[in-house]
């Protein structure tokens, strides 16, 4: 009970940070406000707070998965063949980001080959850390570098969207319908889709199972018209606070000096990623008839949950963005372990 109280206290404090961001009219307040305040309060070691565990983060990922799937209406599904050529760009995109990332960390920063390999892969933080541990790489460096990359992207994208694309995402915006407007039957259906999807995703050992499983089942449910209501607005705000709190706890126990050093070193890799992403965004925008904001999010090397959450918040083309990130993760999760075991041992 003490652990749960400390997790809840961390989420409550993070919520205060979110509310502060709302009053300051800053972008994505529920997500960025919770990240900001959490990254500060973890410096005070005597505070009785803990990082939210899987009892909080798993439902958050399930809710995001169901929400992503809700964008795949019958009309959208009939247009998926229009995405195929854009999706083909993901493979060279992954190869180039990994190649230049490895060169950067190995040749410039002096990482060993294994650590440089897993630090540069544009995949999930947890997955790359686990693979790196299996290959006897420097797990601490991989964790810091991958977390820093995610932090840079999550922090920079909202400001790019708001101040370059002039899309107002500040304040307390409504994302989906409020809880009070949903029927009990709709809530039960959404709950069933989420729980069943999570179980199926875990059984099938899908990457990011608690997100991908509910998303896949949600696509079927919404695509066939069985379910019509999206998860309520209040739940999506709670999800943002939970994820923000979790991201904020990433650097707990790490000295400020080390964090600054890693952030500065990762900034160089972030610039490389920005250049490569910019090239592919320009190619996709020139060749295909898609909104530039959707292309930007599709070719942003952030986490699946975080990027899709931003896509939901700015009402971008979620199916287009989601499919690109699925292909990216499939490429990384299938080829990263194979190449690592074949060439790095």
Distance between the termini: 44 Å
> Uncertain spans, ≥5 residues at pLDDT below 50?
none
Shape: globular
Number of domains: 1
Note the main sheet: none
Number of helices: 16
Percent in helix: over 70%
Task: Describe the protein's architecture and organization.
Helices cover 72% and strands 0% of the residues. The protein is built from 16 helices and no strands. α6 runs antiparallel to α7 (113-120), α8 (125-134) packs antiparallel against α9 and α15 (304-313) packs antiparallel against α16 (318-343). The protein has one domain (60-243, 250-343). The protein starts with a helix and ends with a helix. It has helices at residues 2-23, 29-41, 54-69, 74-77, 84-87, 90-108, 113-120, 125-134, 139-163, 184-203, 209-223, 233-248, 256-287, 292-298, 304-313, 318-343. With 345 residues, it is mainly α.
Task: Give a nutshell description of this structure.
With 345 residues, the protein is mainly alpha-helical.
SSE topology:
Blueprint: H1 2-23, H2 29-41, H3 54-69, H4 74-77, H5 84-87, H6 90-108, H7 113-120, H8 125-134, H9 139-163, H10 184-203, H11 209-223, H12 233-248, H13 256-287, H14 292-298, H15 304-313, H16 318-343
Helix pairs in contact: 1-2, 1-12, 2-12, 3-10, 3-11, 3-12, 3-15, 6-7, 6-13, 7-8, 7-9, 8-9, 9-13, 10-11, 14-16, 15-16
Keywords:
345 residues; mainly alpha
């Amino acid at each position: 009970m003490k652990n749960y109280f400390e997790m809840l206290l961390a989420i409550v404090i993070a919520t205060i940070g979110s509310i502060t961001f709302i009053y300051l009219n800053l972008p994505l307040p529920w997500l960025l406000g919770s990240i900001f305040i959490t990254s500060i309060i973890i410096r005070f070691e005597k505070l009785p707070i803990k990082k939210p565990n899987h009892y909080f983060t798993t439902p958050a990922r399930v809710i995001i998965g169901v929400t992503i799937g809700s964008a795949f209406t019958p009309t959208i599904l009939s247009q998926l063949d229009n995405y195929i050529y854009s999706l083909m760009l993901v493979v060279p995109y992954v190869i180039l980001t990994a190649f230049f990332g490895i060169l950067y960390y190995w040749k410039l920063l002096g990482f060993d080959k294994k650590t440089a390999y897993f630090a540069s892969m544009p995949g999930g933080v947890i997955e790359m850390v686990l693979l790196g541990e299996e290959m006897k790489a420097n797990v601490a460096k991989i964790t810091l570098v991958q977390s820093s990359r995610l932090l840079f992207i999550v922090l920079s994208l909202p400001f790019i969207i708001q101040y370059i694309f002039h899309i107002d995402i500040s304040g307390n915006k409504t994302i989906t319908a409020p809880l009070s407007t949903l029927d009990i039957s709709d809530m039960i259906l959404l709950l069933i889709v989420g729980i069943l999807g999570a179980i199926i995703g875990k059984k099938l050992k899908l990457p990011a199972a608690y997100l991908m499983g509910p998303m896949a089942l949600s696509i079927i449910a919404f695509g066939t018209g069985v379910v019509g209501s999206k998860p309520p607005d209040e739940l999506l705000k709670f999800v943002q606070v939970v994820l923000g709190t979790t991201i904020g706890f990433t650097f707990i126990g790490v000295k400020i000096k080390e964090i600054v050093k890693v952030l500065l070193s990762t900034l160089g890799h972030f610039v490389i990623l920005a250049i490569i992403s910019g090239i592919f965004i320009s190619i996709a925008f020139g060749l295909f008839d898609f909104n530039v904001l959707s292309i930007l999010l599709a070719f942003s090397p952030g986490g699946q949950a975080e990027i899709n959450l931003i896509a939901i918040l700015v009402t971008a083309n979620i199916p287009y963005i989601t499919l690109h990130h699925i292909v990216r993760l499939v490429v990384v999760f299938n080829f990263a372990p194979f190449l690592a075991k074949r060439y790095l041992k």
